[in-house]
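User: Please fill in residues for this 409-position structure.
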Protein backbone atom coordinates (compact mmCIF):
# COMPACT_ATOMS: atom_id res chain seq x y z
CA UNK A 1 0.00 0.00 0.00
CA UNK A 2 1.35 3.47 -0.95
CA UNK A 3 0.39 6.82 -2.42
CA UNK A 4 -0.81 6.64 -6.08
CA UNK A 5 2.50 7.86 -7.47
CA UNK A 6 2.01 5.95 -10.72
CA UNK A 7 -1.06 8.02 -11.64
CA UNK A 8 0.16 11.42 -13.03
CA UNK A 9 -3.28 13.04 -12.97
CA UNK A 10 -3.58 12.72 -9.17
CA UNK A 11 -1.41 15.78 -8.63
CA UNK A 12 0.87 14.73 -5.76
CA UNK A 13 3.36 17.24 -4.42
CA UNK A 14 6.56 15.74 -3.04
CA UNK A 15 4.80 12.41 -3.11
CA UNK A 16 1.82 13.46 -0.97
CA UNK A 17 -1.64 14.92 -1.42
CA UNK A 18 -2.03 18.73 -1.30
CA UNK A 19 -4.96 21.12 -1.08
CA UNK A 20 -5.77 23.75 -3.72
CA UNK A 21 -4.22 27.21 -3.02
CA UNK A 22 -5.95 30.04 -4.95
CA UNK A 23 -3.26 32.54 -3.92
CA UNK A 24 -0.32 30.63 -5.35
CA UNK A 25 -2.31 28.91 -8.03
CA UNK A 26 -1.49 25.48 -6.64
CA UNK A 27 -3.91 22.90 -7.97
CA UNK A 28 -5.28 20.47 -5.42
CA UNK A 29 -4.61 16.77 -5.65
CA UNK A 30 -7.20 14.48 -7.20
CA UNK A 31 -7.84 11.04 -5.71
CA UNK A 32 -8.83 8.43 -8.23
CA UNK A 33 -11.82 6.26 -7.36
CA UNK A 34 -9.81 3.07 -7.80
CA UNK A 35 -7.16 4.12 -5.35
CA UNK A 36 -9.61 5.71 -2.84
CA UNK A 37 -11.90 2.67 -2.83
CA UNK A 38 -8.96 0.30 -2.46
CA UNK A 39 -7.59 2.15 0.54
CA UNK A 40 -10.99 2.42 2.20
CA UNK A 41 -11.82 -1.25 1.61
CA UNK A 42 -8.49 -2.31 3.07
CA UNK A 43 -9.11 -0.31 6.24
CA UNK A 44 -12.68 -1.57 6.56
CA UNK A 45 -11.48 -5.16 6.22
CA UNK A 46 -9.13 -4.65 9.15
CA UNK A 47 -11.90 -3.07 11.24
CA UNK A 48 -14.28 -5.94 10.52
CA UNK A 49 -11.59 -8.53 11.23
CA UNK A 50 -11.21 -7.00 14.68
CA UNK A 51 -14.89 -7.56 15.46
CA UNK A 52 -15.95 -3.94 14.90
CA UNK A 53 -18.78 -2.69 12.70
CA UNK A 54 -17.55 0.33 10.65
CA UNK A 55 -19.12 3.62 11.70
CA UNK A 56 -18.38 6.85 9.85
CA UNK A 57 -18.47 9.07 12.97
CA UNK A 58 -16.00 6.96 14.98
CA UNK A 59 -12.27 7.47 14.52
CA UNK A 60 -10.69 4.86 16.81
CA UNK A 61 -12.09 1.67 15.31
CA UNK A 62 -8.91 0.81 13.42
CA UNK A 63 -6.82 0.94 16.61
CA UNK A 64 -9.33 -1.14 18.57
CA UNK A 65 -9.47 -3.69 15.77
CA UNK A 66 -5.70 -4.05 15.61
CA UNK A 67 -5.53 -4.61 19.39
CA UNK A 68 -8.26 -7.24 19.21
CA UNK A 69 -6.56 -9.04 16.32
CA UNK A 70 -3.25 -9.13 18.18
CA UNK A 71 -4.90 -10.33 21.39
CA UNK A 72 -6.91 -13.03 19.65
CA UNK A 73 -3.89 -14.27 17.76
CA UNK A 74 -2.22 -15.49 20.99
CA UNK A 75 -3.35 -18.97 22.10
CA UNK A 76 -4.85 -18.95 25.62
CA UNK A 77 -2.11 -21.22 26.91
CA UNK A 78 0.48 -18.71 25.69
CA UNK A 79 -0.98 -15.66 27.40
CA UNK A 80 1.38 -14.52 30.14
CA UNK A 81 -0.26 -13.45 33.36
CA UNK A 82 2.67 -13.41 35.78
CA UNK A 83 6.02 -11.69 35.94
CA UNK A 84 7.75 -15.05 36.12
CA UNK A 85 6.36 -15.94 32.67
CA UNK A 86 8.17 -12.90 31.33
CA UNK A 87 11.39 -14.09 32.96
CA UNK A 88 11.20 -11.56 35.82
CA UNK A 89 12.09 -13.33 39.07
CA UNK A 90 13.24 -10.53 41.38
CA UNK A 91 10.08 -8.42 41.50
CA UNK A 92 8.49 -7.56 44.85
CA UNK A 93 5.23 -9.41 45.33
CA UNK A 94 2.75 -9.26 48.19
CA UNK A 95 -0.52 -11.03 48.83
CA UNK A 96 -2.01 -7.78 50.15
CA UNK A 97 -2.62 -4.93 47.71
CA UNK A 98 -1.56 -1.50 48.98
CA UNK A 99 -2.55 1.89 47.65
CA UNK A 100 0.03 4.57 46.88
CA UNK A 101 -0.81 6.37 50.14
CA UNK A 102 -0.43 3.14 52.14
CA UNK A 103 2.94 2.38 50.56
CA UNK A 104 4.15 5.90 51.38
CA UNK A 105 3.00 5.42 54.97
CA UNK A 106 4.88 2.11 55.20
CA UNK A 107 8.07 3.67 53.85
CA UNK A 108 7.71 6.57 56.25
CA UNK A 109 7.55 4.25 59.24
CA UNK A 110 10.32 1.90 58.14
CA UNK A 111 13.39 1.75 60.35
CA UNK A 112 16.82 0.19 60.00
CA UNK A 113 16.97 -0.46 63.76
CA UNK A 114 17.18 -4.17 64.56
CA UNK A 115 14.81 -5.82 66.99
CA UNK A 116 16.19 -5.39 70.51
CA UNK A 117 17.74 -1.94 69.93
CA UNK A 118 17.05 0.51 72.77
CA UNK A 119 16.30 4.16 71.99
CA UNK A 120 15.63 7.07 74.40
CA UNK A 121 12.56 9.18 73.65
CA UNK A 122 11.87 12.63 75.18
CA UNK A 123 8.08 12.07 75.41
CA UNK A 124 5.92 9.58 77.25
CA UNK A 125 4.33 8.16 74.09
CA UNK A 126 5.69 4.81 72.88
CA UNK A 127 6.21 4.94 69.07
CA UNK A 128 4.90 2.22 66.76
CA UNK A 129 7.20 -0.78 66.69
CA UNK A 130 8.56 -0.18 70.22
CA UNK A 131 7.80 -1.15 73.82
CA UNK A 132 8.77 0.77 76.94
CA UNK A 133 11.70 -0.83 78.77
CA UNK A 134 9.75 -1.16 82.01
CA UNK A 135 10.40 -4.71 83.21
CA UNK A 136 6.95 -5.83 82.06
CA UNK A 137 5.98 -9.36 80.98
CA UNK A 138 5.20 -9.79 77.26
CA UNK A 139 3.84 -12.60 75.10
CA UNK A 140 6.34 -14.52 72.98
CA UNK A 141 3.59 -15.13 70.42
CA UNK A 142 2.90 -11.42 70.05
CA UNK A 143 6.58 -10.41 69.82
CA UNK A 144 8.40 -13.51 68.50
CA UNK A 145 11.47 -11.63 67.21
CA UNK A 146 12.02 -9.79 70.48
CA UNK A 147 11.42 -12.98 72.48
CA UNK A 148 14.03 -14.77 70.37
CA UNK A 149 16.53 -11.97 70.97
CA UNK A 150 16.03 -11.48 74.73
CA UNK A 151 15.23 -15.08 75.59
CA UNK A 152 15.02 -15.55 79.37
CA UNK A 153 17.81 -13.04 80.13
CA UNK A 154 15.63 -10.89 82.37
CA UNK A 155 13.09 -13.49 83.53
CA UNK A 156 12.49 -13.87 87.25
CA UNK A 157 10.55 -17.14 87.14
CA UNK A 158 7.05 -15.70 87.47
CA UNK A 159 6.42 -14.94 83.78
CA UNK A 160 4.43 -18.07 82.96
CA UNK A 161 4.67 -20.29 79.91
CA UNK A 162 4.97 -18.51 76.56
CA UNK A 163 6.07 -15.19 78.09
CA UNK A 164 9.29 -13.25 78.60
CA UNK A 165 10.28 -10.21 80.64
CA UNK A 166 11.71 -6.91 79.41
CA UNK A 167 14.66 -5.27 81.19
CA UNK A 168 13.94 -2.41 83.60
CA UNK A 169 15.28 1.04 82.72
CA UNK A 170 13.03 3.41 84.65
CA UNK A 171 15.03 5.64 86.97
CA UNK A 172 18.35 4.01 85.98
CA UNK A 173 21.51 5.28 84.25
CA UNK A 174 22.88 3.05 81.49
CA UNK A 175 26.55 2.08 81.49
CA UNK A 176 28.57 0.50 78.71
CA UNK A 177 29.39 -3.14 79.34
CA UNK A 178 33.05 -3.61 80.39
CA UNK A 179 33.41 -6.62 78.06
CA UNK A 180 36.96 -7.44 79.15
CA UNK A 181 38.35 -3.90 79.42
CA UNK A 182 38.89 -4.10 83.18
CA UNK A 183 37.31 -0.77 84.20
CA UNK A 184 34.12 -2.41 85.50
CA UNK A 185 35.29 -6.01 85.67
CA UNK A 186 33.11 -8.92 86.69
CA UNK A 187 29.87 -7.47 85.36
CA UNK A 188 27.43 -9.58 83.42
CA UNK A 189 25.68 -8.01 80.46
CA UNK A 190 22.30 -6.69 81.58
CA UNK A 191 23.19 -6.89 85.30
CA UNK A 192 22.20 -4.18 87.78
CA UNK A 193 24.71 -2.31 89.95
CA UNK A 194 24.16 -0.30 93.14
CA UNK A 195 25.45 3.25 93.53
CA UNK A 196 28.88 3.80 95.05
CA UNK A 197 31.35 6.52 96.15
CA UNK A 198 34.99 6.17 95.20
CA UNK A 199 37.10 5.74 98.34
CA UNK A 200 38.72 9.05 99.38
CA UNK A 201 39.82 11.21 102.35
CA UNK A 202 39.49 14.89 103.25
CA UNK A 203 42.48 17.00 104.39
CA UNK A 204 41.98 19.43 107.30
CA UNK A 205 44.13 22.57 107.67
CA UNK A 206 45.57 22.92 111.17
CA UNK A 207 45.66 26.21 113.15
CA UNK A 208 48.89 28.16 113.54
CA UNK A 209 49.12 27.44 117.26
CA UNK A 210 48.95 24.28 119.28
CA UNK A 211 45.52 23.08 120.26
CA UNK A 212 45.75 23.53 124.00
CA UNK A 213 42.08 24.02 124.76
CA UNK A 214 39.22 21.63 124.15
CA UNK A 215 37.39 23.82 121.64
CA UNK A 216 40.44 24.69 119.50
CA UNK A 217 40.66 23.61 115.84
CA UNK A 218 42.41 20.35 116.67
CA UNK A 219 42.58 19.78 120.36
CA UNK A 220 46.05 18.65 121.49
CA UNK A 221 47.68 19.03 118.05
CA UNK A 222 51.06 20.72 117.58
CA UNK A 223 49.61 23.40 115.36
CA UNK A 224 51.69 23.11 112.20
CA UNK A 225 51.32 21.54 108.78
CA UNK A 226 48.38 19.49 107.57
CA UNK A 227 46.64 16.80 109.53
CA UNK A 228 44.23 14.06 108.57
CA UNK A 229 42.14 12.86 111.45
CA UNK A 230 39.45 10.24 110.86
CA UNK A 231 37.47 11.63 113.75
CA UNK A 232 37.08 15.01 112.06
CA UNK A 233 34.12 15.46 109.70
CA UNK A 234 32.13 18.17 107.96
CA UNK A 235 28.41 18.69 108.25
CA UNK A 236 26.40 16.48 105.84
CA UNK A 237 24.91 17.91 102.64
CA UNK A 238 23.27 16.44 99.53
CA UNK A 239 20.43 14.03 98.84
CA UNK A 240 19.72 10.31 98.71
CA UNK A 241 21.90 9.42 95.70
CA UNK A 242 24.98 10.44 93.71
CA UNK A 243 24.16 11.61 90.18
CA UNK A 244 25.31 13.94 87.42
CA UNK A 245 23.15 16.52 85.69
CA UNK A 246 20.69 14.63 83.53
CA UNK A 247 17.63 14.69 81.31
CA UNK A 248 14.73 12.31 81.97
CA UNK A 249 13.86 10.18 78.93
CA UNK A 250 11.78 7.09 78.27
CA UNK A 251 13.86 4.15 77.07
CA UNK A 252 12.08 1.99 74.51
CA UNK A 253 13.12 -1.25 72.84
CA UNK A 254 12.48 -2.19 69.21
CA UNK A 255 9.86 -4.93 69.41
CA UNK A 256 9.24 -5.92 65.80
CA UNK A 257 11.13 -5.26 62.60
CA UNK A 258 8.55 -4.79 59.86
CA UNK A 259 5.94 -2.00 60.08
CA UNK A 260 3.23 -4.28 58.73
CA UNK A 261 -0.40 -3.13 58.75
CA UNK A 262 0.77 0.49 58.80
CA UNK A 263 2.76 0.35 62.01
CA UNK A 264 0.75 -2.22 63.92
CA UNK A 265 1.74 -5.72 64.96
CA UNK A 266 1.72 -8.25 62.13
CA UNK A 267 -1.51 -10.23 62.23
CA UNK A 268 0.50 -13.41 61.71
CA UNK A 269 2.15 -12.82 65.08
CA UNK A 270 -1.27 -12.81 66.73
CA UNK A 271 -2.39 -16.08 65.13
CA UNK A 272 -1.36 -18.23 68.13
CA UNK A 273 -3.50 -16.02 70.37
CA UNK A 274 -6.53 -16.77 68.20
CA UNK A 275 -6.38 -20.47 69.05
CA UNK A 276 -8.49 -22.10 71.75
CA UNK A 277 -7.55 -20.90 75.23
CA UNK A 278 -6.78 -23.48 77.93
CA UNK A 279 -5.76 -23.40 81.57
CA UNK A 280 -2.10 -23.13 80.52
CA UNK A 281 -2.25 -21.34 77.15
CA UNK A 282 -3.48 -17.92 76.15
CA UNK A 283 -6.03 -17.75 73.37
CA UNK A 284 -9.65 -17.07 72.63
CA UNK A 285 -12.80 -18.75 73.87
CA UNK A 286 -16.52 -18.48 73.31
CA UNK A 287 -18.91 -17.18 75.96
CA UNK A 288 -20.94 -20.02 77.41
CA UNK A 289 -24.71 -19.95 77.04
CA UNK A 290 -27.11 -20.56 79.89
CA UNK A 291 -27.67 -24.07 78.51
CA UNK A 292 -23.91 -24.68 78.59
CA UNK A 293 -23.79 -23.57 82.23
CA UNK A 294 -26.69 -25.81 83.19
CA UNK A 295 -25.05 -28.78 81.46
CA UNK A 296 -21.68 -28.11 83.09
CA UNK A 297 -19.60 -30.32 80.77
CA UNK A 298 -17.99 -27.86 78.29
CA UNK A 299 -14.46 -26.86 79.35
CA UNK A 300 -13.75 -24.73 76.25
CA UNK A 301 -16.08 -21.80 77.02
CA UNK A 302 -16.00 -19.07 79.64
CA UNK A 303 -18.74 -17.46 81.71
CA UNK A 304 -19.31 -13.83 82.62
CA UNK A 305 -20.11 -12.34 86.03
CA UNK A 306 -23.60 -11.60 84.74
CA UNK A 307 -24.12 -15.26 83.88
CA UNK A 308 -22.79 -16.36 87.26
CA UNK A 309 -25.28 -14.02 88.90
CA UNK A 310 -28.16 -14.99 86.62
CA UNK A 311 -30.86 -16.73 88.65
CA UNK A 312 -29.23 -15.96 92.00
CA UNK A 313 -31.23 -13.86 94.45
CA UNK A 314 -31.28 -13.27 98.19
CA UNK A 315 -33.41 -11.49 100.75
CA UNK A 316 -31.89 -11.07 104.20
CA UNK A 317 -35.09 -9.89 105.85
CA UNK A 318 -36.73 -11.56 108.87
CA UNK A 319 -38.83 -13.45 106.34
CA UNK A 320 -36.29 -14.08 103.58
CA UNK A 321 -34.77 -16.52 101.15
CA UNK A 322 -31.63 -17.63 99.34
CA UNK A 323 -32.21 -18.76 95.72
CA UNK A 324 -29.36 -20.45 93.84
CA UNK A 325 -29.13 -20.17 90.02
CA UNK A 326 -30.41 -22.95 87.81
CA UNK A 327 -26.88 -24.07 86.89
CA UNK A 328 -26.43 -24.89 90.60
CA UNK A 329 -29.67 -26.86 90.69
CA UNK A 330 -32.02 -23.97 91.46
CA UNK A 331 -32.13 -24.83 95.19
CA UNK A 332 -34.10 -22.33 97.33
CA UNK A 333 -33.81 -21.99 101.11
CA UNK A 334 -36.48 -19.87 102.87
CA UNK A 335 -37.01 -18.81 106.45
CA UNK A 336 -39.42 -16.71 108.45
CA UNK A 337 -41.73 -16.23 111.42
CA UNK A 338 -45.34 -17.36 111.63
CA UNK A 339 -48.31 -15.65 113.18
CA UNK A 340 -49.15 -16.90 116.71
CA UNK A 341 -50.18 -20.52 116.37
CA UNK A 342 -52.95 -22.23 118.28
CA UNK A 343 -54.67 -25.59 118.32
CA UNK A 344 -56.40 -24.73 115.06
CA UNK A 345 -54.66 -25.01 111.69
CA UNK A 346 -52.96 -21.80 110.53
CA UNK A 347 -51.52 -21.15 107.04
CA UNK A 348 -48.17 -19.42 106.56
CA UNK A 349 -47.06 -18.21 103.11
CA UNK A 350 -43.43 -18.40 102.04
CA UNK A 351 -41.71 -15.16 101.05
CA UNK A 352 -41.11 -16.72 97.63
CA UNK A 353 -43.15 -19.47 95.97
CA UNK A 354 -41.07 -22.51 95.00
CA UNK A 355 -41.11 -22.87 91.17
CA UNK A 356 -41.39 -26.66 91.41
CA UNK A 357 -41.87 -28.15 94.88
CA UNK A 358 -41.21 -27.61 98.56
CA UNK A 359 -39.15 -30.56 99.75
CA UNK A 360 -39.24 -30.05 103.51
CA UNK A 361 -40.48 -27.60 106.15
CA UNK A 362 -39.25 -27.58 109.72
CA UNK A 363 -40.64 -25.27 112.41
CA UNK A 364 -40.36 -24.69 116.13
CA UNK A 365 -42.05 -22.58 118.84
CA UNK A 366 -40.36 -19.34 119.87
CA UNK A 367 -40.89 -19.29 123.65
CA UNK A 368 -38.86 -19.02 126.86
CA UNK A 369 -41.21 -21.48 128.60
CA UNK A 370 -40.40 -25.12 129.16
CA UNK A 371 -40.25 -27.13 125.94
CA UNK A 372 -42.63 -29.76 127.33
CA UNK A 373 -45.46 -27.22 127.36
CA UNK A 374 -45.89 -27.06 123.55
CA UNK A 375 -46.15 -29.34 120.59
CA UNK A 376 -45.99 -28.01 117.02
CA UNK A 377 -47.02 -30.00 113.97
CA UNK A 378 -46.79 -29.14 110.25
CA UNK A 379 -49.92 -30.67 108.82
CA UNK A 380 -49.48 -29.83 105.12
CA UNK A 381 -47.13 -28.06 102.68
CA UNK A 382 -47.38 -26.74 99.13
CA UNK A 383 -45.04 -24.81 96.85
CA UNK A 384 -46.33 -21.51 98.27
CA UNK A 385 -47.30 -22.17 101.93
CA UNK A 386 -47.57 -24.64 104.79
CA UNK A 387 -50.14 -25.38 107.52
CA UNK A 388 -49.26 -25.86 111.20
CA UNK A 389 -50.96 -26.17 114.60
CA UNK A 390 -49.65 -25.65 118.11
CA UNK A 391 -50.88 -27.72 121.03
CA UNK A 392 -50.25 -26.88 124.69
CA UNK A 393 -49.43 -29.21 127.58
CA UNK A 394 -48.89 -28.84 131.30
CA UNK A 395 -50.54 -25.43 131.48
CA UNK A 396 -48.77 -23.77 128.56
CA UNK A 397 -50.42 -20.72 127.05
CA UNK A 398 -51.90 -20.84 123.54
CA UNK A 399 -51.14 -18.59 120.54
CA UNK A 400 -47.38 -19.00 120.42
CA UNK A 401 -45.31 -17.65 117.45
CA UNK A 402 -42.96 -19.99 115.62
CA UNK A 403 -40.13 -19.74 113.10
CA UNK A 404 -39.46 -22.07 110.19
CA UNK A 405 -37.05 -23.13 107.45
CA UNK A 406 -38.33 -24.44 104.11
CA UNK A 407 -36.20 -26.03 101.38
CA UNK A 408 -37.23 -26.68 97.80
CA UNK A 409 -36.51 -25.79 94.19
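Assistant: Residues filled in for all 409 positions:
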Amino acid sequence: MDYPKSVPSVGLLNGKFVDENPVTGQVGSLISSDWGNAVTDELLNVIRAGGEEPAEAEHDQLLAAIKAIVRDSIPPEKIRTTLAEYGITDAYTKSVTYTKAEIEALLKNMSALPVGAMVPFPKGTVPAGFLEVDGSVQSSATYPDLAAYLGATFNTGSEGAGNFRLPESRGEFLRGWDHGRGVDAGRGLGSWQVDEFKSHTHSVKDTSSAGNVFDSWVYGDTGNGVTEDENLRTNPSGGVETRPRNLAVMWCIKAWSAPLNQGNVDIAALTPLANQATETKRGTALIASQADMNLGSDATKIVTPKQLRLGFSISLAANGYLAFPSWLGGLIIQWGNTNPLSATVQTTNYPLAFPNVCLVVTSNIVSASAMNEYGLTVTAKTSSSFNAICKTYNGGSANQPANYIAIGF
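For context: The first strand starts at residue 118 and ends at 121.
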